[in-house]
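hey can u run this one w/ IPE bound, need the structure tokens asap thx
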Amino acid sequence: MPVSDVVAAPAVDQVAAPVHVAVIMDGNGRWAAARGLPRGEGHRRGVAALRQAVRSAGELGVKVLTIYSFSAENWSRPATEIDDLMALVKRFVRDDLQELHRAGVRVRVIGDRTGLDSEIFGLISEAEALTRANDKLTFVVAFNYGGRQEIARAARRLAEQAAAGELDPASIGTATLEQYLDTVGLPDPDLVIRTSGEQRLSNFLLWQAAYAEFVFLPIYWPDFDRAAFEQAIDEFHRRERRFGGLKARTGS
Ligand code: IPE
Ligand code: IPE
Ligand code: MG
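ok here u go:
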């Protein structure tokens, strides 16, 4: 019997479409280096890929798109690169906010806001306030974000409430802690995509990605386009999600 007859066809119907896709946009620097360009040029091209990714997410029926734009650990990069990245963040909000708003996109920013440059803090607040009532796509920007720091901040707030006698420590469970995470109210990511070939989380959504599917693409972020997005979603549809249970069986 040919192998094709004994290998079961992949089931196509048991995985629901991903509601929340989270993306680790990695490889801007290597994209630039491969072309003999400065790293900043890679970041600029990365913003163009991001614009396209937001548009594609809406078209592909994704309801929440989270992007890792700057990690808590990225401050360890050289000052010139940080200046480049901050300038791009500011320009992105200034240039794109109105269009995102017109497209029905709600912007939400996760990460630590204490100590941020006041201009960036203002732009983040403006973007969130302007788009608060939109519901076509929720665009979550992880900025100055670290998963461990986020969990530690949540734990600190729970401890403060307990110390003030407002919270019984015995009542604290996963659902309680989730109320104090930056992502409160958002569904967990179904799919986490990382470009550049690296296969690690780099402190991204540690709590929320507990049962996410991971797709690692061998392309640098500036080359991420609609076709790459579709490829990642196709791969997601070939996965079998179990959440600790058993595979749903059909037939005998
Ligand atoms: C991702 O690209 C963008 C940010 C981390 C802000 P990198 O800058 O990490 O590019 P590589 O990984 O060095 O190629
Ligand atoms: C993760 O990429 C952070 C962002 C994409 C913003 P990094 O390039 O900082 O991750 P590592 O250092 O390779 O793990
Ligand atoms: Mg990197």
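The domain at 4-148+186-236 is CATH 3.40.1180.10 (Undecaprenyl pyrophosphate synthetase). anyway lmk if its weird
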